[in-house]
Every structure is written in structure tokens, then in C-alpha cells.
Amino acid sequence: xxxxxxxxxxxxxxxxxxxxxxxxxxxxxxxxxxxxxxxxxxxxxxxxxxxxxxxxxxxxxxxxxxxxxxxxxxxxxxxxxxxxxxxxxxxxxxxxxxxxxxxxxxxxxxxxxxxxxxxxxxxxxxxxxxxxxxxxxxxxxxxxxxxxxxxxxxxxxxxxxxxxxxxxxxxxxxxxxxxxxxxxxxxxxxxxxxxxxxxxxxxxxx
Length: 206
What we know:
Blueprint: H1 5-30, H2 37-44, H3 48-54, H4 58-71, H5 83-90, H6 94-125, H7 127-152, H8 163-173, H9 176-185, H10 190-205
């Protein structure tokens, strides 16, 4: 007789995905304060207890929505180990590597920017979200510095630019709020943003 555990795990994973998808819809539509755990449960078709058991409270729901939007799924594979960023690492040409990186950031912005704006606004008034937001910004900085290190291994950076300053520049340019401002508020396409970001990174770094 086949073990029930694989089916149970698959069902639990599907339930978690449904909950995170519901949170990802509701937070941008109603804001952090306007979205309750019960509303997420209702939207996902599960009980409130199931939301807590599967994902956690409201702060954990927002963080899970952020994490999934960043990488595009709920698989436990860190962003630097994703194929698109491994391609950036493996590309020998600096300008081509920047172009590939800009494409990755544009894709992240398209998925993430709405949730990112909710996170940013909630971090001001909610201490728990504020702590998570600080961690996110530190992780973004680490990622930016990692990209600069990779880029500098392929050739020289702009004269007078040290690695720390270069990391700060990348950290600022890849902020998902920029995608939101330009694409959601000003009507740019993802392709427009990708071209602008690649050109900006080239001019600032090379």
C-alpha cells in the first residue's frame, strides 16, 4: 500500500502556495493594515488556523509573499543559485553580464514591486515589519556587493570607484521602488526599465 505521506506533503505544499498567492493579491490591494489573516484565509479557502500553521501570522505572510515574488516560486533555492544569476556569474564579458543582470532585476521588479511598496510603507509603523525590512535591505546590499565582486573579476571598474561605493550604487539602482515608480507610476514597460537599468549600471560602474 502506498504511503500517505507524499500525498500529505504535496497537499500541504499546495495549501501553502494558495495561502501565499492570496496574501500576494490582498496586500497590494488593501495594504498591510487593511489585510487580515482571516481575509487571507477566506481568499485561499482555508481556515485561519491553517494559515498560521502553514505560513504564520501577518508579518510572516508578507515576508513569504516577498520571498516568492523575489524568486518566482516557493522552492528552497537561493536567488544567487538560480540559473539566471548563475548565467551572470558565468558570462565573461562585463557589458553582457550587466545586460543579463538588468534582465534579472527587471523580472524581479515586475513580480515584486507591489509587495515591496506594501513592505516599505508598513515598516514605518510596525516594529516587526521594520526589523524584517532592515534584514531585506541588508540582504539586498550583500547581493549588490556580490554582483560588483563578480563584475570586477571580469575587468576593471570605472577609475576612482571602489568596491564599497560600487556596491552602494548597485543597491540603490536595483531597489524595487524604482521599478514601481517608473513602470507603475510613469507607464514604462519592463523592456524600457531593463534598457535603462543596463545603461545606468554601465555608466556608473564601467
